[in-house]
Specification:
Distance between the termini: 43 Å
Strand content: 35-45%
Shape: elongated
Length: 172
Amino acid sequence: MTQRSTLPAACALLAMALALAGCSGTGAPPGASPATGSGGGTAGSTTPGGSTGTGSPSAAPTPSDPLGVPSSAQSIIAQDALVSQTCTADAAGAWSFSGTVRNDSQERRTYTVAIAVTDGPSVAGHSLQTVTVSPGGTAEVRAEAFAVTSGQGPSGPAQLSCDAVVSQEVAK
């Protein structure tokens, strides 16, 4: 299938990435060292339901933090960190993504890659992948068979698009 990019899909993916940025933890307790992946980074799939619910309640808004989001959940869009990407569907309609995240900074950084296959305004499937990358290093991001499509949408031929948005955790 051909990869197509549309503004509505990118906007929907951006909204999803921003909404779920606070859910991008590794599931490891604070101070624990996650497993090392390729390129000196760590990788793992995250899900919104993976929280233990033991965190503090939502913070109150302040002038420096008008949304009242805990600093550990804040992120910025870092699309330039995704230096290569491929998103394709096999003959059965299963979509897979692979890409490389590069950290050009002098500090260790954690990135979340939100990947979605859309059919017009509908999301056919999505995946969140989090990697921690050493200064000047790279890490591979993979999501295998995260969406399955038939090529036929609810109103006729599908208008399929696979898009990725990268966010970087912001330390305060």
